[in-house]
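Per your request, structure below.
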């Protein structure tokens, strides 16, 4: 019965664009020393009972008492091995969400992790930490920027312990810088109440909202450029052109796109790479594309075109469409940050970590 409630919660929030884009977010449920957590590469909107991974809570908790390597790659490899060993018999062919250890440290039965753009307007804003304290006081825990995976779980465990000492209770609302939102509760009803309260309070702070109303542009030119970019991206690749009122503001000129030149969250890196290519009106598309590829070692996923819109690229139609949706999400986040001091994107060392992190490579290739 409880697993069916977990599926219900996952499908409900996963189907709402304001909470989850593409394969983002994860959920879990605990019962009798076992945690059911979303499998990596699955999608909350359509996840089924058999796509959750059953894990031993004791073994997951024991990971936080171990000493792992200080080297990022070695540490994450060691932690991944222990996390995979915590799967119960019969789960051998599944891979748990990379956030499984973090889910395990919440004592509550249900945990919901999502990436609402309005929340990430706060988490990716320069004044995010101060605003979180002002808006939520002791009803939420703010987690400073921390690399995902084992390090994030360990940092959260320490901050959760401090919070419990201060308040006498475990946290129910956790807000992670440049990442997203965790809600933990004993019932789905409380999950909904807490989530609604977070969104309501943030909406009261917003001074500007994204405007995605339709605009009219030269579609012949747009489709011509999309076809050229698709050819440059690779044989049998796909390209999706997109524009709207908000996009046009960002591609007005070279200075207007600056808010979107650096990624805000890990998802923006995974699905859109770490920065878009901007092509000025009349610019040489081929030369700009080749220069980007030579400089970064890979092709751009997003090509923004001055006074026109942007093209999302991918090896498959789904990959290109996912890049489009994630870049639109980045636009939403950028606009919402204006209510919290302006943009505070991810630093270069964090970006390099995500670009080279095996767990994110796995997630991307399974979606």
């Amino acid at each position: 019965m409880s697993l069916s409630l977990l599926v219900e919660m996952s499908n409900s929030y996963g189907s709402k664009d304001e909470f989850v884009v593409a394969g983002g977010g994860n959920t879990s449920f605990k019962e009798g020393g076992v945690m059911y957590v979303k499998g990596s590469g699955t999608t909350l909107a359509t996840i089924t009972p058999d796509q959750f991974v059953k894990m031993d809570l004791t073994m997951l908790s024991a990971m936080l008492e171990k000493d792992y390597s200080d080297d990022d790659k070695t540490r994450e490899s060691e932690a991944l091995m222990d996390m995979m060993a915590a799967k119960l018999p019969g789960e051998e062919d599944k891979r748990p969400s990379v956030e499984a250890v973090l889910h395990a440290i919440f004592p509550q039965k249900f945990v919901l992790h999502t990436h609402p753009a309005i929340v990430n307007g706060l988490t990716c804003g320069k004044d995010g930490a101060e605003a979180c304290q002002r808006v939520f006081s002791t009803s939420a825990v703010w987690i400073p920027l921390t690399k995902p995976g084992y390090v994030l779980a360990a940092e959260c465990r320490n901050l959760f312990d401090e919070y419990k000492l201060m308040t006498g209770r475990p946290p129910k609302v956790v807000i992670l810088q440049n990442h997203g939102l965790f809600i933990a509760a004993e019932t789905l009803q409380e999950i909904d109440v807490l989530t609604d309260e977070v969104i309501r309070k943030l909406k009261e702070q917003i001074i500007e909202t994204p405007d995605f109303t339709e605009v009219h542009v030269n579609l012949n030119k747009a489709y011509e450029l999309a076809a050229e970019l698709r050819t440059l991206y690779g044989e049998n690749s796909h390209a999706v052109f997109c524009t709207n009122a908000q996009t046009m503001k960002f591609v007005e000129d070279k200075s207007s796109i600056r808010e979107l030149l650096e990624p805000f969250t890990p998802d923006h890196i995974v699905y859109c790479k770490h920065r878009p290519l901007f092509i000025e009106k009349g610019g040489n598309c081929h030369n700009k594309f080749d220069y980007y590829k030579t400089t970064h070692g890979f092709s751009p996923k997003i090509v923004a075109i001055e006074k026109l819109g942007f093209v999302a690229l991918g090896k498959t139609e789904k990959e290109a469409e996912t890049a489009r949706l994630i870049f639109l999400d980045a636009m939403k986040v950028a606009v919402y940050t204006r209510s919290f001091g302006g943009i505070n994107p991810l630093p270069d060392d964090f970006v390099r970590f995500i670009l080279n992190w095996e767990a994110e490579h796995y997630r991307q290739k399974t979606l």
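The longest helix spans residues 317-337.

Regards,
D.
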